[in-house]
Amino acid sequence: MKTAWVFPGQGSQTAGMGLDLQRHPHAQNRFEEAAAILGWSVVECCTPPAEKLSQTRYTQPCLYVVETILADLYTAPMPDYVAGHSLGEFVALYRAGVYDFGTGLRLVKLRAELMDQASGGQMVALLEPDREQLDQVLAQTSEVVLANDNHPGQVVISGTPAGIATVLDKVQVKRAVPLAVSGAFHSPFMAEAAAQFNAYLATVPFADAQIPVLSNTDPTPSTDGALLKQRLLTQMTTGVRWREIVLQLAALGVTRVVELGPGKVLTSLIKRTVPEIELLNVATL
Question: Are 115 and 102 in contact (CB under 8 A)?
């Protein structure tokens, strides 16, 4: 039986996540290491009411720390493949041995701070859109792109408020849900932030992966460290091809997927794309 481990991204965070992990010595050490790198406490940030947890600069590092600890402590045999949704890809790369915990956290810290500073953009989730109609309208609308292709009945568009209003006016959808984010993530409008992030990313050494990684920008599995870094360079400005990742896992013979992190967002998306895959959630100690 082939297995994949997947890691959720921003939007899966919940107040109280990871707090039970403090009972484990390894987690205690990781929380201390994270505090030294971040200059603030993940534990304090996640403790209810966790008012800061919804801010991107805090959300992403908290998710990375909690998910990497869960991945370290999960005692099942190593997976055949790993993947992560947006921020979750940084956890997947860590688990595959591409870089160590601290290196990944420094990347995530910078990414989160740059994305938190983005403004003027908007993201909206579309439930059961007319995909043919949506593709046609997006092709004609330069200010909006497909940011997340999550499953056949859910996508996220990203762009200017005016552009998104135009798309919503022209495309038939069951429901449109604005996302609580500061900017047009996973779109060309993140180019400035991406350039600053990539200047730092270029200096970070990537080892070859010990487990094949399916990237957001290219769902083809790879262990080539240089290629995995190249894919990450474009992640901030291009869409998350999650539906294609799930279909690729099924094509590779994966019959069991374990989601490591808070919530069941990815489990839900996978179930709607390939319902026959066995699913398991690991969110607590």
Answer: no
CA contacts within 13 A on the Cβ side of 169: 7
Q: Considering the chain, what percentage of its residues have pLDDT values greater than 90?
A: 93
Catalytic residue among 12, 85, 158, 186: 186
Residue 29 has pLDDT above 90, yes or no: yes
Paired residues of 84 in beta bridges: 7
pLDDT above 80: residue 245: yes
Say yes or no: 100 and 144 in one domain: no
Find the domain containing 107 and state its range.
2-118+187-282
**What is the domain count for the chain?**
2
The reported pTM is 0.95
The rounded percent of the chain whose pLDDT value lies above 70 is 100
Q: Please indicate whether residue 119 is annotated as part of the active site.
A: no
Q: Considering the candidates 12, 86, 158, 187, report the single residue annotated as catalytic.
A: 86
Structure tokens given for 7: 């890691």
pLDDT band at 179 (very low <50, low <70, confident <90, very high): confident
Q: Are strands 144-151 and 278-282 parallel, antiparallel or unpaired?
A: unpaired
What is the rounded distance in angstroms from the CA atom of residue 137 to the CA atom of residue 58?
A: 35
CATH number at residue 173: 3.30.70.250
Rg (C-alpha) for the chain, rounded Å, is 18
Q: Is 85 a catalytic residue?
A: no
